[in-house]
Structures
1.
Amino acid sequence: MASDDRTYRLGDLQLEIMKVLWRLGSATVVDVHEQLVGEPLAYTTVATMLRKMEDRRLVAHDAPSGDGQGRRFVYRPLVSERDVTRGMAGDLVERLFEGSLASTVSHLLEERDVSAAELAEVERLIREHKRGRAKRR
């Protein structure tokens, strides 16, 4: 899969399709259509979106399978979940919080119900990150 510094801006449906492909590795339109949750979508909507995503080089298709049921393209992701997450999260921090991680975290802590377990996990991650930074110096 490609790994670069591009910022991927995916719509909700595109992101859901990518999650299906990341989970399955590769899938036909039928597979993706069946795996999508939420509001039911037409098969043609999913097929059209996959073609548009291919134009953006987010996915690619392999040759049609010879399953005797017509042409079935098998789609696979060209970008990793990590690259998309990093790009979208980074874009959010830059656009909404002027690049401030502290402002981002403060906003999330104020606006969301954060369980004690989640807060403990965040604290653990911060301690772990601090230790990692200290070792690099």
Note: Residues 116-136 form the longest helix (21 residues).
2.
Amino acid sequence: MLPLRQGIQDRGDLSHFMREAVREAKKAWLAGEVPVGAILIDQSNKIVARAHNRCILDNDPTAHAEILAIRQGAKVCKNYRLNGMTLVVTVEPCLMCMGAIINARLDTLVFGAFDEKSGAAGSVYNLSDDGRLNHRLTVIPGVMEKECRQLMQGFFRERR
């Protein structure tokens, strides 16, 4: 694992931010959305954006937590490039979200549970390490993996 900004050196520090992402995911669950939450952190480890899935609520197939957090962060920073920032998300991002993460030039992606069906940060695809793309980012998987996986499993078990 590459060294991160001062203040985020270990999984304990990352767990603090993942707990915030889990809070967002629970909001999605309560709204009937797939429980994915995301937190965007700036270089001083301040949360600049938080979001959860809103595809159903917004009638928008692109309203994934990651996309919404990136949009909020870009507005706050008044820049479409989010250099040096970290995105913390409860579930491994899909292809669409990884495309946005790469285009936003995020520095680091932290996620909880792997998505063996559509994950694009190491499971099914690995866009973060594709040499054909012009941006690379550090990926830290498995932070609070059990809790994040149980959240998803509980949601889908309840819906069956």
Note: Strands lie at 37-41, 47-52, 86-91, 108-113, 138-140.
3.
Amino acid sequence: MKVALITGITGQDGSYLAELLLEKGYMVHGIKRRSSLFNTDRIDHLYQDPHDPNQRLKLHYGDLTDSMNLTRIIQESQPDEIYNLGAMSHVKVSFDSPEYVGNVDGLGTLRILEAVRILGLEKKTRIYQASTSELFGGLAENKNENGFYDENSPLYPRSPYGVAKIYGFWITKNYREAYDMFACNGLLFNHESPRRGETFVTRKITRAVSKIALGLQDKIFLGNLEAKRDWGHAKDYVRMMWMILQADKAEDWVIATGVTTTVRDFVRMAFGEVGIELEFKGEGVEEKAYVTACNNKEFQVEIGKEVLSVDPSYFRPTEVDLLLGDPSKAKNKLGWVPEYDLAGLVKDMMEGDVALMKKDVDLLKAGHQILKQLE
């Protein structure tokens, strides 16, 4: 039985990857940070009874800032594959916590690589390092001849998050070359799902749209509506992570869809999933969105209602306006083909959040009934 170790297993990618590996018969070890709150919602359906001898998922408390702890977990689990998905991955927040993001996202990668080397596992253990499209920085002159970013594009990160990740990227390449380790970088472009963190823009949009449609919220505030991203589904991307570590040769790979969309159009698509049409008026910080039609009887919002405004506080000090990846290498060499397009992704996210927000409506109704009975 193959053994895998996943850092960041309680996150979006970690939970989907754990599902995939368990389906493939792996023993899966996961590292989660200690917290006074339960933070395992995304994997609770996988982790039933730790005393069950047939349980193939084991969780460890750990942190990417603690080298001794990481070394102990790797020594105990003896993994065939390590997927380093743990990170402080919110770009905007990285400007507020640059030292922390450098310690976790940059040096955290080094700590894993060095632990594998010190333990003498460099011939046994294959390592996947979750790199990021933020390394490219959105500079037009760094694209390839077809207007995409690929594995040969120059890197120019424009946030503390990107700078920390570029250290992780290069130290992974360095250990691969210096110690002949099977260590790979996956340059992941934006990938979303119903499990995406609530502070990331796509999930913020789908949650807010669901609330607005159900009368639980009036409007949503966003930053740069002109920003363009290459959005894929996390399920497709974790499948590619696994494929990378099954390859014959350790290499670096771009994981992307090759399609770009503005934040504005993502908003429009999300509202469209509940039958609401929008009109955008104004420019820059004055841009707003208004309801022009409601085509679903279940979701009725007042025509002409303002449902979106721009908040400059969400702008980044250095903005990356466009990210578009070229997945040709992954498709041609590994046969990776995404199962979700953008429309399918938005539909999946909206269905999940509408169902979630309907539970809130039901709770409110139940609360009102209890109050009436007490009167």
Note: Residues 77 and 119 are 12 Å apart (CA to CA).
4.
Amino acid sequence: MENFGLGLLLMVVGMIAVYYILLLVIGLGKGLIVLVNKYSPEQVVVAKPVRNTTNVPVVNKTLPDQTAVAIVSAVSVLTGGHGKVGISRRHDG
């Protein structure tokens, strides 16, 4: 019974030590984040918008009509009708 009590005591002391070490790691991590954000601010990069002046869709591969309809329907359902798909259909002839 004496070994059981010693094992239980070691387990409790170990769990408390791990808890406090994790608190220390979390505190140091938060401090590091604050330090980095203070001395190294995020650079804002402004991207120029790309205009499609040629009215050529982005996708240049031919698709069967059923596949194109399925893609457009899926995007419409997933985006609540706000999504737009540029699918080109080439007709050779």
Note: Helices lie at 2-39, 65-79.
